[in-house]
Write a structure and sequence with these properties.
Shape of chain B: globular
Shape of chain A: elongated
Strand content of chain A: under 5%
Radius of gyration of chain A: 48 Å
Number of domains of chain B: 2
Order of helices and strands of chain A: HHHHHH
Strand content of chain B: under 5%
Helix content of chain A: 55-70%
Structural class of chain B: mainly alpha
Order of helices and strands of chain B: HHHHHHHH
Number of strands of chain B: 0
Structural class of chain A: mainly alpha
CATH class of the largest domain in chain B: Mainly Alpha
Number of helices of chain A: 6
Oligomer: heterodimer
Largest interface: A-B, 33 and 40 residues
CATH architecture of the largest domain in chain B: Orthogonal Bundle
Amino acid sequence: MNCQLCQKELDAYCEGRSPADTRTQVETHLGVCKKCAESFKLQTLAERIIKKEKELLPNPFLQTRIMAQIENLEAVRNRAIPTYMQVLRPAIMATSLAAAIFFGVMMGSYYKPAGRGTTIPIELALIDDAAIESVDILSNE
Amino acid sequence: MTDSEIIGLILQGDRDKFRILVEKYQQMVFHTCMGFVHNRDDADDLTQDVLIQAYQSLHAFKGAASFSTWIYRIAINASLNKVRKSTGNHILQRLDILFGAGKEKEIALPLLDAENPENILIRQEHKDWVKKALDSLPEKQRTAIVLSNYDDLSQKEIAEIMDTTEGAVEALIQRAKSNLRKKLTSSHK
């Protein structure tokens, strides 16, 4: 038996499904081939670990937790909104929105820029900003 | 009472009957999830999520496949989604390593010098190393090996769950075992 054949038969050998003569050949090969022997040990160890994981049981309170969560889901689902509210609520929201838009447009249409509250004094009205004032105005002579 | 009869009663409003289904299938779902996540707490949470999802989707169960097949599919999808999410986190960790932010902790593999593998004490390093090897398998191979090794299902049952042929399942399991062996041997060098 060579390594390739041994690797092929290893699964059946580990599971006890190998015929007697194949089993003997595998065992003989494992006794002389270090690489296949190592592979066999690793595979057996992996199978033991998987077996340990399989032996674990779920949390004993899992069923209670699941049923409690289902009760919560049903309670939320059953908190039904009355039929008249199912119609009234969207109607109220739509009406409020329309009223807000209408009110905004009305406010906008009545807007006028703010006018001046006081009349301009005559002295200021006569000032010609474009002209250069004579300095004599400022002297006391 | 058959599963179909129980489901009929639940859909009519007797939700307490779901307790019977939970009792019947929770261990099966737990083992399936355990095969993917290898952690008891995560498997418990996943089992809860799967059974709640099953309850919420009961109206969609048409009865074309058996209820157990249907539940297995939900469990596998939920487990694979969970694994994909955690793989995303691992990818970020690997990017950190690539850009030098951290060094990946090498798992020190034990020396298997005991002659009889039954005598080797199972340590956390062994479990991490087997978990890594299983996680490295492609999804279909991993699903097939989990259903075969953790749930002890026949190839026919696995084929029904995976919606494929028995021949394809046999090939998947063979390839999975071969890949596992290579991974275990190479990581032990």
